[in-house]
Design a protein that fits this description.
With 241 residues, the chain is of the alpha/beta class. The protein is 38% helix and 23% strand. One of its GO terms (biological process) is tetrapyrrole biosynthetic process.
Length: 241
């Protein structure tokens, strides 16, 4: 068995970061050295909901948590960006429909089905892509409320050491905001292989000066897992036994 010669650096908020590591290990079929250094801490916000929505728009599991805290009725239709968000919505008692993609795929799905409004998008204080704006412009009744904040967090000492060393690091990145928080704490000397979930993240990640930049085939967790696995394997093969 080819042992990994790279370290996996995970900057996602918990518990998403640890969950992603388990997915990568399962895909690899063996352990990989891993550093967990979340750069974002999720802070709940109690949204003010003046108008009861006919359905929800959810772009993360944190939005699901906000919907639950707001006491929205179980069984309400939840239009979800992807399968993991849809599963979180199902567990919370909502009736999820997954777009199996990114915010653009979510907008297309809702426009195709034209559900009765108003729809409520519970999102973070920092968001990528304005779902409400896109839907409103197309004639769908909807509004948005902040359901959580994404506070920036400094790198751990272990992560700082790894980023200043010469061992290859594989760095999956899921949002431009994470790239921005990381870049503010650089520059870094370690040879970075960045795995980006989208073109927007890939473009933002250029500031990190990676030795290799990989774009996931689809903007979802499964594609990110496969791309991360392949990046780790490629470094191991290039390094030899």
């Amino acid at each position: 068995m080819q042992q990994p010669n790279a370290t996996l650096l995970i900057t996602r908020p918990e518990p998403s970061g640890a969950d992603f590591v388990l997915q990568v290990i399962s895909a690899l079929g063996h352990p990989v050295p891993t550093i967990l250094s979340p750069l974002i801490a999720i802070e709940p916000v109690d949204p003010t909901i003046e108008v009861m929505p006919a359905g929800l728009i959810l772009t993360s599991a944190h939005g699901v948590d906000a919907a639950r805290r707001a006491g929205l009725p179980k069984g309400m239709t939840a239009w979800c960006v992807g399968d993991r968000t849809a599963e979180a919505a199902r567990v919370a008692g909502f009736d999820p429909i997954s777009a199996k993609g990114d915010s653009s795929a979510l907008i297309r799905m809702i426009l195709d089905r034209r559900p009765e409004g108003p729809l409520l998008h519970l999102h973070g204080a920092h968001k990528t892509g304005d779902v409400v704006e896109g839907l409103t412009a197309a004639g769908v009744s909807c509004y948005g409320r902040v359901g959580y904040r994404q506070a920036s967090v400094p790198l751990t000492q272990q992560a700082r050491f790894a980023l200043s060393a010469d061992k290859p690091l594989v760095l999956p990145l899921f949002s431009p905001r994470t790239v921005s928080i990381l870049a503010e704490q650089g520059p870094f000397d370690a040879p970075l292989t960045v795995v980006a979930i989208s073109e927007a993240v890939a473009n933002a990640a250029e500031i990190l000066r990676p030795v290799r930049l990989v774009l996931a085939e689809q903007p979802n967790g499964e594609a990110m897992c496969h791309a991360t696995r392949d990046a780790i394997d490629a470094i191991s093969l290039a390094s030899g036994p």
